[in-house]
Amino acid sequence: MISRKISDHMTQLPHTIGEGATLKKAREMMMEFSTHHLPVLSGGAVVGMLSDRDMQMIKNLSDEEHVLVREIMTDEPFMVDHSADLKDVLTEMHKRGYHSAIVKGTSHDSWGIFTASDAVKLLAQTL
Question: According to DSSP H, which parts of 8-115 are helical?
Fold first, then answer.
């Protein structure tokens, strides 16, 4: 039986990037860690999400060393509670075209990220 709790399927403590980092640094991190999403932090708090799709939308990436993450990140990322129902999160992601959700932790639980790739992996495990 598959757990219905989103936190059971998230990537815990994902790689993150600071809002003042450059796109060049973000691209390097995405390549190094084979990820498409980087939660963006400021003072230890999540303030946004940067995806490879966000970076693709910028027409002139030749200036990656001077464009900052905060300039193109999604500053209101989709966030869900750690106890959220898996089906509800998947439904909302599909309905709104989201490819990731930040899973908020508690003082006892770590936070994480749930992506479309996690959903595909979960589907493959159930078939």
Answer: 23-33, 52-56, 69-72, 86-96
* Average pLDDT for the chain: 89
The domain that holds 17 is classified in CATH as: 3.10.580.10
Please name the helix (run of DSSP H) or strand (run of DSSP E) that holds residue 113, with its range, or none.
Answer: strand 112-115
In a domain, 61, yes or no: yes
CA–CA distances in Å: residue 50 to residues 14, 77, 125: 13, 9, 28
Count how many domains the chain has. 1
What global pTM score does this model have? Answer: 0.86
Q: What is the CA radius of gyration of the chain?
A: 15
